[in-house]
Amino acid sequence: MKKNVFGFLLLLASLSHAQNKDEQMLKDMYKFSLTQSQCYSWLDDLSNKVGQRMSGSAGAEKGIAYAKAKLETLGLDRVYLQEVMVPKWVRGEKEMAYILDNKTKINVPICALGGSVATAKNGLTAEVIEVHGIDELKALGAAKVKGKIVFYNRPFEPENVDAFKSYGNCVDQRYYGAKEAAALGASGTIVRSMNFRLDDFPHTGAQSYGDLPKEQWIPTAAISTNGAELLSQKLKSNPKLQFFMKMSCQQYEDVLSYNVIGEITGSVHPEKIMVVGGHLDSWDLADGSQDDGAGVVQSMEVLELFKKLNYKPRNTIRAVLFMNEEFGGKGGKKYEELSKLNNENHIFALESDAGGFSPRGFSFECDELNFTKVLSWKNLFEPYLIHNFVKDHTGSDIAHLTSKKIVKAGLLPDSQRYFDYHHAANDKFDAVNKRELELGAATMASLVYLFDQYGID
Amino acid sequence: MKKNVFGFLLLLASLSHAQNKDEQMLKDMYKFSLTQSQCYSWLDDLSNKVGQRMSGSAGAEKGIAYAKAKLETLGLDRVYLQEVMVPKWVRGEKEMAYILDNKTKINVPICALGGSVATAKNGLTAEVIEVHGIDELKALGAAKVKGKIVFYNRPFEPENVDAFKSYGNCVDQRYYGAKEAAALGASGTIVRSMNFRLDDFPHTGAQSYGDLPKEQWIPTAAISTNGAELLSQKLKSNPKLQFFMKMSCQQYEDVLSYNVIGEITGSVHPEKIMVVGGHLDSWDLADGSQDDGAGVVQSMEVLELFKKLNYKPRNTIRAVLFMNEEFGGKGGKKYEELSKLNNENHIFALESDAGGFSPRGFSFECDELNFTKVLSWKNLFEPYLIHNFVKDHTGSDIAHLTSKKIVKAGLLPDSQRYFDYHHAANDKFDAVNKRELELGAATMASLVYLFDQYGID
């Protein structure tokens, strides 16, 4: 009995020692991140020196070179590029659009959606039919749609606390809108920008013509929320008004690009790989400081934190800066393809692609056993106001990593302001707060550390 | 036994019914706030139509009239003003300052601190002595300080997760800096702005000469963080450089002003009062949209939510928009004075004076029994990502309410960006996000509702 008590006390002492060690490690990481980390100055460079990093563009190549060079300063075990062919789509001249209400022209801000075809050189002029979703469009039928510009105007649902839920419930209009309208003979589409706010920024984003024959593809653009409100109002008094839009975008052949990878080799299990990542490409309208410059520099910061705090991970930790998340997801797919080819064993992946706002928690894709383990770490995060641990979608670049045993996680920053900037010309450096970015990096490093110490076998 | 089981089941059923009822009420309040509330448009008015509301100014009077008029549209049981005499201090002409390094003049942004005396008409020119706190100043002694401008340059501690902790550990330089320097014969003081960021905004704020005789009062100003960095750097190469500052601020006699109050009479306990409040006055450099326009419109929104959702509170709910929080706290003191005079019974008070950012939780000042009760409501707040319930300081306007039984609470929004705007010229309407403001209002209303239903007896 005495022995048992002694054993129990030893176990308690050892658990308490581990808890203290972990508390201290998290404390050190948050402190370093808030006082000495480079992530904010990296983001400054990436946003203000490199600029937009649209996949297939010269900007993306500059971004690749920059990130590789910075990773090489961190004293990692390996920094390398991974070849990937990516689509190259170019917006061309700035788009132009106006409402033609009798003889009055009212300019409205639009931008082509990714992959859209151009209008004719002298633009497209047509009557407008407003709908609030694809179902409503289909119910109208071809007779009422033919030749017209379909105007998708279902707004974000304001009542969701999670802004991504509103996005998820709205984005089908943008992604499939042109395909569905074209199938009914429309001449073009415009979609209300994916944004809560009433403002003057059109928000671009991916769309797909699906398997529609190329000759049926129609020009498709986003209109600012203020523009959408105005158009809807004008249509009420004059359903016969016309809309003019001119776009000169063009699709080129795929071009060679790269994922950028930096890694620290595991001291105990070099063959077990933990990924932390974000995407290096942005849209072309701005620097993409929130989407996803933030995730890129936070992922790099995880490696800096481990090196500077002299933490030698048990497993291999790899920062992967994915290319082409925005418009094809080719980098993520290529990463998984090569990982399979090389028989790599991924045990963990964490993505940051929801902005550099105050971190609130993580989403997880994993089995119940691992989720229970994760929940046991919650108290370690509470001093940093990280409370939200949920099972949910984690990230589109790590979506392709599908081994049975892997635990996947997504950083969940505060979501309220994300869509104010998402895919728009105001997604610039000044949209990111230094401390919020740094807190996010430390939060990511903390989870990676805990998984490295106590994660799945 | 059977009876006991039945009784137990009844109790369970009734608890579950209450829980469902509360869940639904919170859901309704958050939904209304995010979809139909007026608080954001009130803030627009208060910021962009009324403008700055420095206590004792015409702007403050406009703010009082505006708030009263809006409260009167809500169908409350009572809307009234409460007289209070407040200090009137006027900044005068825009301040001017430069570093005189040999013959080179380098302009730097400063602003007078509240209550500062003016410089001589042709300004003040003197050598500068840099210190990092009052202790360091005192250790220098009068001989090294006499005639000089004391430059307090201790920065915010970046490592604190709670930005208010950094403020609390730094603000003594601003509040007592002039008094302490004057006592040692300094000719003036400048203090590094209370802000994490390096930027060009000087941040004003209250200061006090304490019981120092009036003839010893010296001009005191804040310098922007960039200005402070520059001055410190220049001092390293030229400790004999001079600093020029010119300020024409002036103190007038106290003037009559008002707290604005709106209330719904309690249906069961009209004599028990629950206060929800923010302060209507701002500094003079901007609209004070975060500090504390947000708290004002959120407090008004609590009443709107109850009225629009047809909730008839058991206790009297009173929104109090306090005057003169920033520079004297006369409104809060007067409120308590009159409440004592009228033998009012305050059971609860909630203040919002930490910005209109995403709400994270509440601080509480109460006994353990009540805190335990509060913690039992946490699960109701989790769907809205409200997790942070702590015992801490709640608010300076309700600080004077000190009855033994009262429970006091402060809304805790995310604190990271608050000091980017606090008391500076950029504290304007566009610093506030609509959804974050609305979530804060619903969070306040939820706590008031729960206290009204289940609060202390």
The geometry of chain A reads as: elongated
Q: What is the helix/strand order of chain A?
A: HHHEEEEEHHEHHEEHEEEHEHEEHHEEHH
CATH topology of the largest domain in chain A: Aminopeptidase
As laid out across the biggest beta sheet of chain A, the strand order is: 1-10-12-11-13-16-14-15
The multimeric state of the shown protein is homodimer
Which homologous superfamily in CATH is the superfamily of the largest domain in chain A? Zn peptidases
Mean pLDDT of chain A: 96
Report helical residue fraction of chain A.
Answer: 25-40%
**Separation, N- and C-terminal Cα atoms of chain A:** 33 Å
Query: How many helical stretches of chain A?
Result: 14
Beta-strand percentage range of chain A: 15-25%
Q: What is the number of domains of chain A?
A: 2
Largest contact between chains: A-B, 26 and 26 residues
- Poorly predicted runs of chain A are none
CATH architecture of the largest domain in chain A: 3-Layer(aba) Sandwich
